[in-house]
Design brief:
disordered N terminus, alpha/beta, about 45% helix, single chain, Rossmann fold, 11 helices
Length: about 250
């Protein structure tokens, strides 16, 4: 699959700030995600992405972490995924995101989950964390926003402790031959598991149709700019979903 460079970090951060600010004012986006996922929607997590109950359970299994170890959630958004995993596995959590608004919202959720957690602004390619300090890293639906995906994987590999794992979601065309082994090797990692997520494209199809069918409601609730961004995404990506393959990759530092 051809890599399309992401917009500059400052531009992305501004876009995500506006998105999180708008969605904080309305329950409609979460309701549409819940409708698209059905029983698989993790209400407490309230993630604006592909995270469902099966993915949470799979990540908890693949991380193989021990109580009080440090989990790093990169591209954490409003924090729900990392906070849920940290509580479920009795971990310490550090969440990173380029959006200051998302970091503020994630920090406000710590009390509800009652886990030792800190959140700060940082990018995928420059986390600011020490070498080998993380006992586990999760990156859900965020790698595609990196300016340089290879550099981002190398950075996430750098912060992993020996024996620790990075779990990240990826989506490619079904006819593509992704060179995951080569990319992992370049970061000093090995591919431990490739878990298929066959229901994810259908979930996005349901969600995008819901966005299109509720276009007027989205404009009223979120404003024209955010609604048009969502509708543009829906119309652009909906035709590509039949040829899409979604996986969870587990990479381990030897």
């Amino acid at each position: 699959m051809t890599h399309t460079p992401a917009p500059p970090t400052s531009q992305l951060a501004a876009q995500f700030d506006a998105l999180h600010t708008a969605r904080a004012r309305s329950t409609l986006p979460a309701a549409l995600y819940a409708a698209a996922m059905g029983d698989d929607y993790p209400d407490e997590v309230a993630a604006a992405g592909s995270c469902d109950w099966p993915l949470l359970e799979l990540m908890a299994t693949r991380l193989r972490m021990h109580p009080l170890q440090l989990l790093v959630d990169v591209g954490c958004g409003t924090g729900g995924i990392g906070l849920w995993l940290a509580r479920a596995l009795a971990l310490r959590l550090e969440g990173l995101d380029i959006s200051p608004v998302a970091i503020e919202q994630a920090s406000a959720r710590r009390i509800r989950f009652a886990v030792p957690a800190t959140f700060r602004v940082a990018g995928l390619e420059n986390t600011g964390l020490p070498d080998g300090g993380a006992h586990g890293v999760v990156c859900v639906d965020a790698l595609s926003f990196a300016t340089n995906r290879r550099a981002a994987i190398q950075e996430l590999g750098r912060i992993l402790a020996p024996g620790a794992r990075l779990v990240l979601t990826r989506a490619v065309r079904q006819d593509a031959e992704p060179r995951w082994e080569d990319k992992a090797h370049a970061a000093g990692l090995i591919v431990e598991h490739i878990d298929e997520r066959p229901t994810e494209p259908a979930m996005w199809a349901r969600l995008y149709r819901l966005w299109i069918n509720h276009a007027d409601d989205l404009r009223r609730e979120l404003g024209d700019d955010q609604a048009e961004n969502m509708l543009r995404e829906a119309h652009t990506r909906l035709p590509t979903l039949p040829g899409r393959r979604a996986v969870l990759l587990t990479l381990r530092r030897p």
